[in-house]
């Protein structure tokens, strides 16, 4: 409320002192907003829901769908067209039938962008456009809070599609610059959306097998170099490396790959799906581009996996503002505002301090999970695999004999409300028309069957305790089931 209205309020109540606190509250909100608009960063301290709501309402009131005066009989009041209000004679006027839907979107109905550029200001929706731009600034800031250098993240955009689709859009952007390229060199990771993003974009993946170093699965730099040499740099669109992954695979050697890409003149796209939450991964990405040592063109990272929002968005960032801008220009048409709005609300209400704290808690939870899993494994004839280079996911090698019943163990865990734990036994499989040996385990022959668990952002320490407890009980039951089955088989 503006100062004049507050004066009038004081007049109605005939008492200025009652209004003083309201005035203070108002001044505080104005200060927060001015700070957001001028600094364009995540607030240090998270805002209250009431503060976020009032800023959303203010931005929404700037959009044309909310310019109408009251409309008798309308569901939501969103859509304009009343006498004295806006008149819409276009085919897309932000009309929303259901009040529930209008509310679900905080009365923002125009989406973002224009047909030629997803970050272009939408004339009917300056409020939505502002939210989008502020979200891009805050996303870049959040990546820096998580450890990214200014060199690594010169700018960022949030696309309203998950990681695989966003990687696809990055590939198509690079294609405009490298029309002769047909291949994408891809250090193997057994995650289908990665491979599909390559194939659906119309490129042929050159799968580079990883190598084993102790228990760890690591990048085979020489094999990547040989793959580039075999096809010629011009025929290659990019190297598509992956940081965050299930152990015993470890984050790709982005420093080595970035240097190789720089030397050979091949672009480098990094799938950093949930790597933002690992300081270790962010530092290695910084090191990869520091002092112009190596080449990274773009990073793609999931909004839900890193920032605790519903699935649906991706942050595309990188050292070259022009490339990030080119990705936004390639996007055909307008786009959904929802994933952007979710991130906007979340970054405001979380604040940089709490984000840092969540990252620190995650790191501590990983360490706790590691210790508890190691101790559990020791007493049950299993062994925690030594994978220190992966500081998100862990793997426990299961005793011989479990492999034959791997699916059963996985399903028993799932039915005991343990989600996310995977029992992995590589199998021969075809994905996107490519044959993989040992699919699921990231290499053609991993020596054992294992169980995965991860410590991701937002996990609570108590969940580790519950997990170990359920794992142990499931393990006992599982062994009893197998023993019974084997006795049955022997009797026949
Ligand atoms: C989650 C994930 C993806 C992409 O998944 P989307 O569903 O497209 O967000 C790709 N690669 C890895 C390593 C992932 O973890």
TrEMBL record:
Its EC number is 2.9.1.2. It comes from the Eukaryota. InterPro entries: PyrdxlP-dep_Trfase, PyrdxlP-dep_Trfase_major, Sec-tRNA_Se_transferase, SepSecS/SepCysS. It is an enzyme of class 2 (transferase). This is O-phosphoseryl-tRNA(Sec) selenium transferase. It catalyses: O-phospho-L-seryl-tRNA(Sec) + selenophosphate + H2O = L-selenocysteinyl-tRNA(Sec) + 2 phosphate. Residues 63-88 are annotated as: Disordered. Converts O-phosphoseryl-tRNA(Sec) to selenocysteinyl-tRNA(Sec) required for selenoprotein biosynthesis. Its cofactor is pyridoxal 5'-phosphate. Belongs to the SepSecS family. Residues 63-72 have a biased composition (Polar residues). The chain crosses the membrane at residues 152-174. It holds the Pfam family SepSecS. Residues 74-88 have a biased composition (Gly residues). Pathway: Aminoacyl-tRNA biosynthesis; selenocysteinyl-tRNA(Sec) biosynthesis; selenocysteinyl-tRNA(Sec) from L-seryl-tRNA(Sec) (archaeal/eukaryal route): step 2/2. It is found in: Cytoplasm. Keywords: Cytoplasm, Membrane, Protein biosynthesis, Pyridoxal phosphate, RNA-binding, Selenium, Transferase, Transmembrane, Transmembrane helix, tRNA-binding.
């Amino acid at each position: 409320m503006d100062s004049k209205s507050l004066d009038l309020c004081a007049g109605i109540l005939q008492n200025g002192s009652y209004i003083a606190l309201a005035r203070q509250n108002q001044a505080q909100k104005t200060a927060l907003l001015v700070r957001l608009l001028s600094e364009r960063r995540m607030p240090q301290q998270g805002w209250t829901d009431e503060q976020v709501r009032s800023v959303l309402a203010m931005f929404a009131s700037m959009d044309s769908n909310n310019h109408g005066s009251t409309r008798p009989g309308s569901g939501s009041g969103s859509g304009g067209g009343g006498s004295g209000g806006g008149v819409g004679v276009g085919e897309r006027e932000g009309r929303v039938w259901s009040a529930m839907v209008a509310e679900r979107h905080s009365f923002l109905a125009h989406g973002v962008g224009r047909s030629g550029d997803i970050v272009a200001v939408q004339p009917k929706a300056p409020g939505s456009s502002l939210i989008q731009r502020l979200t891009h600034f805050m996303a870049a800031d959040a990546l820096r809070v998580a450890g990214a250098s200014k060199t690594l993240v010169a700018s960022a955009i949030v696309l309203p599609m998950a990681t695989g689709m966003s990687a696809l859009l990055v590939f198509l952007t690079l294609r405009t610059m490298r029309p002769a390229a047909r291949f994408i060199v891809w250090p193997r990771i057994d995650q289908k959306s990665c491979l599909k993003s390559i194939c659906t974009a119309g490129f042929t993946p050159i799968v580079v097998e990883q190598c084993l170093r102790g228990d760890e699965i690591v990048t085979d730099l020489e094999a990547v170099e040989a793959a580039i040499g075999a096809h010629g740099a011009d025929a290659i669109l990019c190297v598509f490396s992956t940081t965050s992954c299930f152990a015993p695979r470890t984050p790709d050697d982005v420093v080595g790959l970035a240097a190789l890409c720089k030397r050979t003149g091949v672009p480098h796209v990094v799938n950093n799906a949930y790597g933002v939450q690992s300081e270790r991964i962010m530092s290695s990405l910084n090191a990869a581009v520091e002092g112009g040592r190596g080449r990274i063109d773009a990073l793609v990272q999931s909004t839900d996996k890193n920032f605790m929002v519903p699935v649906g968005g991706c942050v595309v960032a990188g050292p070259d503002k022009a490339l990030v801008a080119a990705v936004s220009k390639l996007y055909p048409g307008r786009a959904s505002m929802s994933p952007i709005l979710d991130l906007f609300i979340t970054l405001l209400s979380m604040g940089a301090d709490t984000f840092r704290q969540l990252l620190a808690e995650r790191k501590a939870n990983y360490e706790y999970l590691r210790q508890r899993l190691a101790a559990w494994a020791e007493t049950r004839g299993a062994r925690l695999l030594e994978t220190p280079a992966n500081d998100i996911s862990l793997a426990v090698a299961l005793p011989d004999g479990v492999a034959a019943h791997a699916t059963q163990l996985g399903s028993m865990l799932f039915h005991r409300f343990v989600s996310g734990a995977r029992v992995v036994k590589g199998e021969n499989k075809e994905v996107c028309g490519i044959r993989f040996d040992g699919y699921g385990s990231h290499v053609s022959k991993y020596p054992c069957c294992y169980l995965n668990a991860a410590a991701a952002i937002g996990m609570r320490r108590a969940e580790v305790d519950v997990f170990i407890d359920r794992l142990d009980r499931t393990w006992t039951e599982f062994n009893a089931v197998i023993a019974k089955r084997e006795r049955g088989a022997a009797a026949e």
